UniProtKB/TrEMBL annotation:
Gene source species: Telmatocola sphagniphila
Assembly behavior: Homotrimer.
Keyword field: ATP-binding, Cobalamin biosynthesis, Nucleotide-binding, Transferase
Family statement: Belongs to the Cob(I)alamin adenosyltransferase family.
Name under which the protein is recorded: Corrinoid adenosyltransferase
Domain of life: Bacteria
Reactions this protein catalyses: 2 cob(II)yrinate a,c diamide + reduced [electron-transfer flavoprotein] + 2 ATP = 2 adenosylcob(III)yrinate a,c-diamide + 2 triphosphate + oxidized [electron-transfer flavoprotein] + 3 H(+); 2 cob(II)alamin + reduced [electron-transfer flavoprotein] + 2 ATP = 2 adenosylcob(III)alamin + 2 triphosphate + oxidized [electron-transfer flavoprotein] + 3 H(+)
Pfam families the record matches: Cob_adeno_trans
Gene3D superfamilies listed in its UniProt record: Cobalamin adenosyltransferase-like
Pathway as given in its UniProt record: Cofactor biosynthesis; adenosylcobalamin biosynthesis; adenosylcobalamin from cob(II)yrinate a,c-diamide: step 2/7
Molecular function GO labels: ATP binding; corrinoid adenosyltransferase activity
Documented EC number(s): 2.5.1.17
A Gene Ontology biological process term: cobalamin biosynthetic process
Length: 188
């Protein structure tokens, strides 16, 4: 369990922060960047949940918990024979895949890319998707330097797909999607 009695410690005033294992690192190191972008994604989902009548609010709330798990996973470097570390699991990924399949079966196939928008909830979901993709790229950067739980990368990859599917669902199951028209604004 987490216990926070003081909010400011002054220990980061020189540009360093502590990882979950107590190691001190620079605040711009790839590990901190990766879990910081996951935290940003969580905040975007929190904003989306302020929208009234989000039909999949319970799913999004469970994803917020998963994102804290992913941040905790990345915050503690992997070591051989570790025990009790909070890590993203294949079951968490599987839950996303089931949600993708469930919501996607209600959508018509696309013949163009979808522009962010259509509805406010859909626009928030597209923003969450793009932040998720950025977090993925940061995790890839971290993976090139350190060993991490590969389930974090898989989870983020599935999550960005789910956020896309949910953005279409929020657009009246795709009926209000705004489709890209290549070259539409070019001068003739």
């Amino acid at each position: 369990m987490v216990y926070l009695s003081r909010i400011y410690t002054k220990s980061g005033d020189q540009g360093q922060t502590g990882l979950g294992d107590g190691t001190r690192v620079n605040k711009d190191c790839p590990r901190v960047t990766a879990y910081g972008e996951i935290d940003e994604l969580n905040a975007v989902i929190g904003l989306l949940l302020l929208e009234p009548n989000v039909p999949f609010a319970e799913l999004l709330l469970s994803i917020q918990h998963d994102l804290f798990d992913a941040g905790a996973d990345l915050c503690v470097p992997m070591v051989a024979n570790e025990q009790n570390a909070l890590r993203i699991t294949p079951e968490q990924v599987s839950r996303l895949e089931k949600a993708i399949d469930h919501y996607n079966e209600q959508l018509a196939a696309l013949n163009s890319f979808v522009l962010p928008g259509g509805s406010k909830a859909s626009a928030w979901l597209h923003l969450a998707r793009t932040v998720c993709r950025r977090a993925e790229r940061s995790v890839v950067t971290l993976m090139q330097q350190e060993t991490i739980n590969p389930q974090v990368m898989i989870y983020l990859n599935r999550l960005s797909d789910l956020l896309f599917v949910l953005s279409r669902t929020a657009n009246d199951n795709g009926k209000k999607d705004v489709l890209w028209q290549p070259g539409k604004s070019r001068q003739s």
